[in-house]
Design brief:
It is found in: Cell membrane. It is a multi-pass membrane protein. With about 325 residues, the chain is mainly α. It has one domain: ABC transporter involved in vitamin B12 uptake, BtuC (Orthogonal Bundle). About 80% of the residues lie in helices and about 0% in strands. It has 14 helices and four strands. α3 packs across α12. The protein is globular and about 55 Å long.
């Protein structure tokens, strides 16, 4: 009887904590949640096809790729940094992975590991330079952005690398149980990992401390270099995952892949309420921000809006979001 009562008490506590977390999440993100709902309603009125199951799954697939980048970008922006190289890392990792399969005949598993290693290496380079020099992260990642993009063009001679392997194509185009797309499954796993890092580990607490006041964090004994190195290395790994998944979806490694991806990732993070000055941000907010970007892009495509105009719209969205953050900070 005592054990049954204890189990029931634990169950009640779990449900209570879960309910409290959901209420807190809604309260903290009420503004952007309303914005997301309003955007969905407007687009569905203009084009009812938006609410079709196929289109909603397509939105989830597109959003998942952006969120791989945005989750790591959240950590970096909380630190007060920026990573402009993620789009180029997507391209070079996708190209390396497909070349390993198409040209060298490597097994898919080995090819994927090679792609992940390249992304991890570039991210580690960003992290090492950011942690050990006074060069601003903007300049560091701008340089590696060009290096990685150039490498993607050089090793492919500017041509796509086609791969017609069922096992490789399943990575980005397959389904679990015929319902859940593989990219969404990866996203759910990565969301849990990132949430755990930011909310349940000392490393996550240190990121907030460094972003809030690096000098105070240093005097409190936090290893700032270690924190910075991890964030940029993790960003490189996440970009590699995004690049491999995208290459699998397109059945080819494209040296042009990921162009402008850093813009979408930054937009998702800022829309989610993460402060560009560092020290504040939530993974949950980034998810909603990415959904807004994904729904907006999909809706503009359904309405036949030119991709040129889409860049303008996203730029305006980022500007408004940053301005809103500045106003909120001043009031606080």
């Amino acid at each position: 009887m005592a054990q049954a009562a204890l189990k029931e008490k634990k169950k009640d506590n779990f449900l209570w904590n879960l309910g409290s977390s959901i209420i807190t999440f809604i309260r903290e993100n009420l503004g952007i949640l309303i914005g997301l709902l309003a955007l969905c309603i407007i687009i569905s009125i203009i084009n009812p096809n938006f609410l079709s199951s196929n289109n909603l799954l397509n939105v989830l697939r597109q959003t998942s790729t952006n969120l791989y980048l945005a989750l790591a970008m959240t950590m970096i922006i909380i630190l007060g940094g920026i990573d402009l190289s993620v789009g180029s890392i997507m391209a070079v990792t996708g190209v390396v992975t497909t070349l390993m399969i198409a040209t060298f005949g490597a097994p898919v598993f080995i090819a994927v590991l090679a792609g992940l290693f390249v992304g991890l290496l570039i991210g580690a380079l960003n992290g090492y330079v950011a942690a050990t020099t006074v060069i601003p992260p903007f300049i560091i990642t701008l340089a590696t952005m060009n290096i990685a993009r150039g490498a993607a063009y050089v090793i492919t001679d500017g041509k796509p690398v086609r791969v017609m392997s069922d096992s490789f194509n399943f990575i980005g185009s397959g389904y679990i149980g015929g319902v859940l797309p593989m990219p969404v499954l990866y996203l759910l796993i990565l969301l849990i990992i990132c949430y755990f890092i930011m909310n349940k580990t000392r490393l996550g607490r240190h990121m907030y401390a460094v972003g809030g006041n690096a000098e105070a964090a240093k005097f409190s004994g936090i290893n700032i270099k270690k924190v910075q190195f991890f964030a940029y290395t993790f960003s490189g790994l996440m970009a590699a995952i995004a690049g491999i998944v995208l290459a699998s979806r397109m059945f080819s490694g494209q040296p042009t892949a990921g162009e402008g991806a850093e813009l979408d990732a930054i937009a998702a993070v800022v829309l989610g309420g993460t402060s560009m000055t560092g020290g504040y941000g939530k993974i949950g907010g980034t998810v909603i921000g990415a959904l807004i970007i994904g729904v907006l892009s999909n809706g503009l495509n359904l309405m036949g809006v030119s991709s040129f105009w889409q860049y303008i719209v996203k730029g305006v969205v980022i500007l408004v979001a940053v301005y809103a953050d500045v106003i909120k900070r001043r009031k606080a």
